[in-house]
Amino acid sequence: MLLSWQHFPYFAIPSVLLWALGTYYSFREKKTLTATFTLLGIALFFAFICGLWISLERPPLRTMGETRLWYSFFLPVAGIITWSRWKYRWILSFSTILALVFICVNLFKPEVHDTTLMPALQSPWFAPHVIVYMFCYALFGAALAVALYLLFVPEKRDDENIWAMLDNLAYVGLSFMTIGMLFGALWAKEAWGHYWAWDPKETWAGITWLSYLVYIHYRQLSSNAFRGKVAIFMVIISFCCLQMCWWGINYLPSAQGKSVHTYNMK
Amino acid sequence: MGLMLQFTIGPIDWRLLEYPFNTILLAIYVLVLGILYAVRKHVYVIEWTMTIYAAVPALAYGVLVTLLLGLTGWDMMLRSWPFILVYFWLMNILGLITIRRILHFSQGSIVSNLCFICNHLGLFMAMVCAALGNADMQKCRLTAKVGQPECRAIDLTGTQMPPKIVELPLSIELHDFIIDEYPPKYVVIDNETDMTINDSPWVIRQDSIWEYAAIVYGRKDSLGNQDMDRYVEWHSMGACTAAFITAIRYASAKEAADAKSEPLDTKQGWVSCGSFMFPNRALRLDSLYSVVMPEREPKRYASSVTVYMGNNQKTDGIIEVNKPLEIDGWKIYQVSYDTALGRWSDTSVFELVSDPWLPWVYLGIYMMLAGAVLTFITAGNKKK
Ligand code: HEM
């Protein structure tokens, strides 16, 4: 049987229900049940991605709708990894809600789904590059949530653990971003002959990367004195740069017609 | 200060640093960094440079300058002094702190030191070697026609206008240029505006198709329309793709999507995307819509070539997008073809790049990759 977007609700809705169950049990501190339900949901969702991959005869990574699919997949994956490592109870509710948002966008605003893939994208680098980036977006999305929480709940700014959590998310997110960016550079070398050409998408990827580096180094300054609004805003601004890199440049006048990376405009 | 230099000296010409100057410069640079490190205790500025208090503003300034580039799209920026200076400053910091870490390797945990060195030294190497190697990089564009070995190419690295023609130490003979195409698509368009209509009440069914076809013109009918034309299979140069289709009209776009209810109307005829020899052909459905076959998208294009080197050696190979051919320090990339001829192109356009510093940039990149993996593994360890 060939899967298509028509079958999406039959996979997405049960997945979200399973993730919601996992979240519920994470608040009740039932570890096995949390892990089981969340992983079942992830497996079901992944089955849909694989099915779509097979029926499209290419990785579903080209259109915005397809990247949203990966984003909604990696949010719970990042959530369960973070949860299993640091046991933040809220993380799964956050990842589930955000995944739900992206799933809803795909459910209610289906796009014309195109099956062709231009020659430059047919490369073994393509899938790892985009998948690693999506994973990093998921982590930085979580970091943004923590930063906003600290922004609006100033009492919590003295809590050592919340800052440690923000730092961890930024470190892990940044390491994925570095990998994604370098994979992109190695791939660009194979496809176009140069690893970094300061094309608008690459420039914004560089800005975003440097911007998260500022946060990481800023937090090294001194663990107590530098915990204020500045650090919080660094995370928020960096996330804005990330959005610019993901879809904002499609609307940026200075980038029009210049980027070789505009295929996800479809 | 950057702006002042910009106005006095003008933009930077990287070509000045051609081999061996860049190698000498690198040696001097590393030596100077070493000396600066050695005298750091006596010069407060150096001591300060190596602290995180200097790194954060430097990085933030780097973001700002790059942001300007991102917002304005002003490519000249790359050769402008403010941009170069901030990156140079970041490199100095990276170099100095890496020396310190390496010399104090025995202090602190091995993993965290390795992680630090991979991140910082990797970036340092990638940046330095990319910048200095830029001067030695040769990049040119060569257009080859079937059966005619070609060694002249357009130089893409210089800033001269018009670009100069160079003679390469190798020549390329094109044997065959191949395009694989995706299956044709059928698109309903608005008769007035030619815009694509995604929610028309028509459903298109392909009845038969000639991948290689020629048109046979029919007589005009009494109204002067040439709808007696048809297509026959034909395999020579200039053949186009043509399909005989049936268009089925439903009451609304929604019913057309389900295709369950009774159709209201059907229409049959030929459509073709055309070629350089034949015009494209649309099928008029009604007063509002027509159906067309857009030009077919290439799935893969490749050139089968023989490359002749100076010493009477030759190599056969296939060059395609994402699969460059590597010969004698040159990498040969497939970039284009004669798009007017499309699938019948008898020319192929290659870009040839020789970049002797590439292995060092790659070493830097691989170190950073290792650093990223180590960062991932160690994240959160110290805080817990
Ligand atoms: C690949 C990107 C980078 C990563 C992942 C990274 C990460 C880190 C980390 C984790 C530390 C703390 C080291 C520790 O205490 O163990 C650090 C320190 C530092 N970084 Fe970076 N960094 C990067 C790039 C840079 C850049 C571009 C600069 C240049 C300005 C820089 C300058 C510094 C300085 C001055 C220190 C403090 C020196 C020290 O503790 O020895 N880093 N970096």
What structural keywords apply?
heterodimer, A: 266 residues, mainly alpha, 8 helices, 70% helix, 0% strand, globular, disordered C terminus, B: 384 residues, alpha+beta, eight-stranded antiparallel beta sheet, four-stranded antiparallel beta sheet, 15 strands, 33% helix, binds protoporphyrin IX containing FE
Low-confidence stretches of chain B: none
Oligomerization state: heterodimer
Q: Strand fraction band of chain A? A: under 5%
The 3D shape of chain A can be described as: globular
* Structural class category of chain B: alpha+beta
The largest inter-chain interface, given as chain pair and residues per side, is: A-B, 50 and 49 residues
Summarize the helix and strand pattern of chain B as letters. HHHHHHEEEEEEEHEEEEEEEEH
Walk me through this protein's architecture.
The complex is a heterodimer of chains A (266) and B (384). Chain A contains eight helices and no strands. Chain A has helices at residues 8-27, 31-56, 64-86, 91-108, 126-152, 160-192, 200-220, 229-246. Chain B is elongated and about 100 Å long. The mean pLDDT of chain B is 84. Chain B is α+β, with helices and mostly antiparallel strands. The chains are: A mainly alpha (266), B alpha+beta (384). The interface between A and B is large, with 50 and 49 residues. The complex binds protoporphyrin IX containing FE (HEM).
Task: Note the topology.
The complex is a heterodimer of chains A (266) and B (384).
Chain A: H1 8-27, H2 31-56, H3 64-86, H4 91-108, H5 126-152, H6 160-192, H7 200-220, H8 229-246
Helix pairs in contact in A: 1-2, 1-4, 2-3, 3-4, 3-5, 5-6, 5-8, 6-7, 7-8
Chain B: H1 2-9, H2 21-38, H3 44-49, H4 52-72, H5 81-103, H6 110-133, E1 138-145, E2 150-155, E3 165-181, E4 187-190, E5 202-216, E6 230-233, E7 240-249, H7 253-258, E8 265-272, E9 283-284, E10 289-292, E11 298-309, E12 314-320, E13 325-327, E14 330-337, E15 347-354, H8 358-378
Antiparallel strand pairs in B: 1-2, 1-15, 2-3, 3-11, 4-10, 5-6, 5-7, 7-8, 9-10, 11-12, 13-14, 14-15
Helix pairs in contact in B: 1-5, 2-5, 4-5, 5-6, 6-8
The structure holds protoporphyrin IX containing FE.
